[in-house]
From TrEMBL:
Pfam families: SoxZ. This is Sulphur oxidation protein SoxZ domain-containing protein. SUPFAM superfamilies: E set domains. It comes from Methylobacterium symbioticum. Transmembrane segments: none annotated. The lineage of its organism: Bacteria, Pseudomonadati, Pseudomonadota, Alphaproteobacteria, Hyphomicrobiales. Residues 9-101 form the Sulphur oxidation protein SoxZ domain.
Length: 106
């Protein structure tokens, strides 16, 4: 399992804009690099990131082989109600990882 880091406020005033930063550790092999035997290493990248706020999709990113080895994404959203944000990373070879973070709106 990859290590995911999420930086966002735990509480926010109603109607405020909050900044969310995510980082996931992943080797991200492009599929264009030769291995020790000279054959190309198989591609192994995170291809998609999605964030849901209480079940509603608020952010989506499609990643390509040119993405960094440890994809770092920053985005904002409006704090509308207390709830859970679900962060999901998907990729090659069946890779999928999700993490939930609670947000309390005051």
């Amino acid at each position: 399992m990859a290590r995911a880091l999420i930086n966002m406020p735990k509480t926010a005033p109603a109607g405020s804009v909050i900044e969310i930063k995510t980082l996931i550790s992943h080797p991200m092999e492009t599929g264009y690099r030769p291995g020790p035997d000279g054959r190309l290493r198989p591609r192994d990248i995170i291809t998609e990131f999605v964030c849901h706020y209480d079940g509603a999709e608020i952010f989506r990113a499609e990643l390509s082989p040119a993405s960094a080895a440890n994809p770092y994404l920053t985005f904002t959203t409006l704090a509308t109600a207390s709830g859970t944000l679900r962060f999901t990373w998907s990729g090659d070879n069946g890779f999928s990882q999700s993490q939930d973070v609670a947000l309390t709106v005051t």
